[in-house]
Amino acid sequence: MLETTILLKPRNEWPPGETVEELIQKLDRAVQLPGLTNSWGYPIRTRIDMLSTGIRTAVGIKITGPDLAGIAALAETLEATLKNVPGTRAVFGERVTGGRYLDIDIDRAQAARYGVTVAAIQRLIQSAIGGENIGTVVDGRERFSINLRYPRALRDSMETLAESRIATPSGIQVPLGTVARLRIADGPAEIKSENGRLTGYVYLDIEGRDLGGYVEAARQVVDTQVKLPPGYAIAWSGQYANLQHARQKMLWLIPLTVLLVLLLLYLHFREPGKVVLVAVCLPFSLVGGFWLVYWLGYNLSVAVGVGFIALAGVAAEFGVVMLLYIDKAVEESRQLGCQSVDRVVLRQAVVQGALMRVRPKMMTVAVIVAGLLPVMFSDGAGSEAMKRIAAPLVGGMLTAPLLSLFVIPALYWSWQGRGAHSQTGND
């Protein structure tokens, strides 16, 4: 694994129209090293992903099984399969068995024939070849260990190691190759384990697709084209695991929040009809947020979801305040006239209440949009997440006020007008 940190120049020094995604595509075409796979990300986010899930890319697959060789073979199969999934920028399966080791197998019978103990052979391997700390040099506040072992010329090849001498009790020097077998063998470069099982990773870097949609498509391809051997299992991890945790929480948090909002609305209005009126109009007020998110090319994420939750709160507030103004106008009409209001008077009261709300609503919208536009045009640290939170609010400010100004008064008049009597005489 090689890590390179790229410091970008200020955005005003970039070529006109250049985006981060286009820059990544250029770098991906230019930086091609044999045996290495590119994975582009922000340093802080990749560190957080590594600490939380162990995966350094946006999406990863954890392969668990009883044997490292089987895990490595399955990782290569998944790598070849996932390359063809739309949205895959890069995929790399860990070669967990790519290490090269010098194995020294002690021939106990031969060692006993020469009177050499296993401990003496292991002491030679550990101290003379591997090295052993025999002391420490103190220099002020610094400490340096003294390591003693054979010179490199006596341990840089298997032949020279086989000529290393071991003293027998009778004083004879026996070569190491006489009492042990030396060979180069393949082995694991790194051993990972989770929940008591051996583990290997497959790293995935995606582009042009939302995280959840890509994983669903990739999961279907893996289920149909890859057959897992007995005893092996795969699990999708990385940022997708965080997305799953957030989705599970949202599944009960959103309904609970909606129920609490409806309860508060009912406690305030004491009329189920008005509560239903606000609740029915609420989804339509979010249309502008969906339009802007789609136009900007943002995928559905936790940040976008947070933005829509905030937009829903503002839209509900618009509806509640509009109903308060209309109720106030209708009540004033009743106080000026009779207790029963006819359809014409009701219509005039509804229009008057809606007109009273135009100026404060425009001020509210202007303040919200003016406060969020700097976020939408910012390029600093954290702007990517903040833009996705602000986008639904900015887009929703185009439709939520219009809905509360035109649709809610019309529905209110249609609903309340049924109970109002028609005026007798000329209007």
- Molecular shape: elongated
Structural class from helices and strands?
alpha+beta
* Tally of alpha and pi helices: 15
Number of strands: 11
Radius of gyration: 36 Å
Secondary-structure element sequence?
Answer: HHEHEEHHEEHEEHEEEHEHHHHHHH
Runs in which pLDDT lies below 50 for 5 or more consecutive residues are 422-427
Q: Describe the largest sheet.
A: 5 strands, antiparallel
The proportion of residues in beta strands is: 15-25%
Task: Kindly report how far apart the N and C termini lie.
Answer: 83 Å
Helix content: 55-70%
Q: Mean pLDDT, nearest integer?
A: 81
Q: How does this model look, in words?
A:
56% of the residues lie in helices and 16% in strands. It has 15 helices and eleven strands. The protein has helices at residues 20-30, 43-53, 68-82, 108-114, 118-130, 158-162, 176-179, 211-225, 239-269, 272-285, 287-296, 302-336, 343-356, 358-376, 383-417, and strands at 59-65, 88-93, 99-106, 132-139, 142-148, 165-167, 173-175, 180-187, 192-194, 197-206, 233-238. A hairpin with a 2-residue loop joins strand 9 and strand 10. Helix 9 runs antiparallel to helix 10 (272-285). The longest helix has 35 residues, at 302-336. The termini are far apart.
